[in-house]
Amino acid sequence: MPTADNAFTTALGLILTLDPALMDIVRLSLQVSLSAVLIAALIGLPLGAALALWAFPGRGMVVVMLNAFMGLPPVVAGLMVYLMLSRAGPLGQLGLLFTPTAMVIAQTVLVLPIVAALARQHIEALLGEYREQLASFGLGRARMMPTLLWDARVALTTVVLAGFGRASAEVGAVLIVGGNIDGVTRVMTTAIALETNRGNLALALGLGLVLLLLVACVNGAAHLLGERARRQMG
Amino acid sequence: MSDLSQPYLAQATTAPMLPLSLDGVRFSHRGQRLLGDITLTLGAGRSLIMGPNGAGKSLLMRLCHGLLTPSAGQIRWNGQPLSPALALRQAMVFQRPVLLKRSAQANLTYVLAIRGCPRRLRKPRAQEALERFGLAPLAQRPARVLSGGEQQRLALARAWLLAPDILFLDEPTAALDPAAIRAVEEAVNQFHHRGTKIVMTTHDLNQARRLADDVVFLNAGRLLEHSPAERFFDTPQSSEAAAFVRGELPW
């Protein structure tokens, strides 16, 4: 396939020369996904820990909902945020639709359930082990939380990395709320979809390679962390 | 005797906690009575709780320590019900030590931190406790990869830093080899000589003979006997205790 072959060479060229158009797209992608993951972690980790620590009426429902939302299709998350932010929606006056902020919100909606649900599972398992000892130290639930979050740090880091993988690889949500506007809201995944349609395989392939590399790095980091922890902690 | 700065405890620490008295204490779970009714008074010294498996030994200690709430009856410390301030003057060492996923030293500085010890004093005090229990070379090792005996000694060092008036030990030597058992027993005696009241469960008759000042004997959730150690081992009052001392009661 000479065209694909040709495209591949061009793609490598774009990456190696740090093509400005390509770099802009990569930069925006990272900005949006990292912001979303940061916000999701800041809310999701304490939320997951709180769900593990406190029993309250309706807790089961919340847990089931969170678990269900882990599999939320990105286009549905995008649609929900679109409806909120569109001119006629409740938050329409903010004028956020088709901005990077809207994309951050959509990806946060996508990642938050993953972080919170998995954090709850890990913290609950750890709590089963620690509860009596921490209670014996005289700690109440609120004071147990930082101890549990810190001692589950390895597992929770993998959780956050999984959330980042999900955010950086999805197309549907950012496409709907961002609109794939060149230079404003165009990220790697939406650009790949568009360039492939337009027949600009070189740029699509170049972006695809960068994305693949990124996802591989994230998974590699998660794996190394797990291995190191197993060696050190026994 | 407390070597921790606990200004908020100043008032509580001055009042003696003993005797510990239980009055008609009962514990039921899902309609099944697991323990009771227990009426018992423990004074100073080393009290060993003995009895076969399922007798309710661990349950009794958890009730006294406040980890469980009795279904009926009252537990009083020198006439007072257990308060948060009194709970902080107790420590417990479990059969399987629960150590945090941190270094041995960090496990010790952790308890100093939660009890409000100033940061600059934490490491020196932790080091002192590590040395006291022969763990100094292991300070930087992850606590979870230490041997069973080392882990139990670390749990004792941690309890030492809490400077408790009462130390509960739930079969602390059940899974240890003879050398590690001796180390734990020496540690228990260090607490005893510091004036800490010891309440400990054990299966091991020889260990009980070595350590006990008085023995509480439980069987099937009921208190059968509480007597000075010598009397318990020489002339047990109940037939169950007599069989237990002869090694005939299965555990």
UniProtKB/TrEMBL annotation, chain A:
Tagged with keyword Transferase: no
Localization of this protein: Cell membrane
InterPro entries (alphabetical): ABC_perm_TupB-like, MetI-like, MetI-like_sf
Key words of the record: Membrane, Transmembrane, Transmembrane helix
Membrane topology: Multi-pass membrane protein
Domain ABC transmembrane type-1: 26-222
Predominant subcellular localization, coarse grouping: membrane
Transmembrane stretches, start-end: 33-56, 63-85, 97-119, 154-181, 201-225
NCBIfam families: ABC_perm1
Protein name, entry field: ABC transporter permease
Organism (species): Franzmannia qiaohouensis
TrEMBL record, chain B:
A GO molecular-function annotation: ATP binding
Alphabetical keyword list: ATP-binding, Cell membrane, Membrane, Nucleotide-binding, Transport
Top-level lineage group: Bacteria
Its membrane topology: Peripheral membrane protein
SMART domains (alphabetical): AAA (SM00382)
SUPFAM superfamilies assigned: P-loop containing nucleoside triphosphate hydrolases
Subcellular location: Cell inner membrane
Pfam families linked to this entry: ABC_tran (PF00005)
Domain ABC transporter: 20-245
Entry keyword annotation includes Iron: no
PANTHER family: AMINO ACID IMPORT ATP-BINDING PROTEIN, GLUTAMATE_ASPARTATE IMPORT ATP-BINDING PROTEIN GLTL
Family: Belongs to the ABC transporter superfamily.
Descriptive protein name: ATP-binding cassette domain-containing protein
Organism whose genome encodes this protein: Franzmannia qiaohouensis
